[in-house]
Specification:
5 helices; RVT_2; Reverse transcriptase Ty1/copia-type domain-containing protein; 3-stranded antiparallel β-sheet; alpha+beta; about 140 residues
Length: about 140
């Protein structure tokens, strides 16, 4: 049996339903937990069950980031920033609410660290070639 706890969310998983049910009842008696049923979504990750196992997706999470930025209808571009574009500290007018920018950056960092396939790509940034771009 496995128990994952994040703040006030619990995920209980195991291969013995009786043991899991007994433990769930114990937690309910001790702490008054609310059973939300089978896991479908947690921490930006959708969970689907199939005959071959569990399938995890962050499609909804990524789409939510795009929507929150007002870019839902935006057309894709080959490069997300102009070539040789330089950003510098304190260039331009400061944001009225830097919290929104920090939230976006934080959500993008979370997306990459929970997706090893995206994180893996960073190791080729210093000397990328066409094969890297094609496989990205």
């Amino acid at each position: 049996m496995n128990l994952l706890v994040y703040v006030d969310d619990l995920i209980l998983a195991g291969n013995n339903n009786k043991v899991c049910e007994a433990f769930k009842n114990f937690l309910d008696r001790k702490f008054g937990i609310k059973n939300l049923g089978l896991l479908k979504y947690i921490l930006g990750i959708e969970v689907a069950r199939g005959k071959d196992g569990l399938f995890l997706s962050q499609w909804k999470y990524a789409l939510n980031i795009i929507e929150e930025c007002g870019m839902l209808g935006a057309r894709p571009v080959e490069f997300p920033i102009e070539e040789n574009h330089k950003l510098a500290l304190a260039s331009g007018r400061l944001l009225n609410d830097p919290g929104m920018y920090r939230r976006l950056v934080g959500r993008l960092i979370y997306l990459t660290v929970t997706r090893p396939d995206l994180t893996y790509l960073f190791m080729f940034c210093h000397s990328s070639c066409k094969a890297h771009q094609k496989n990205t």
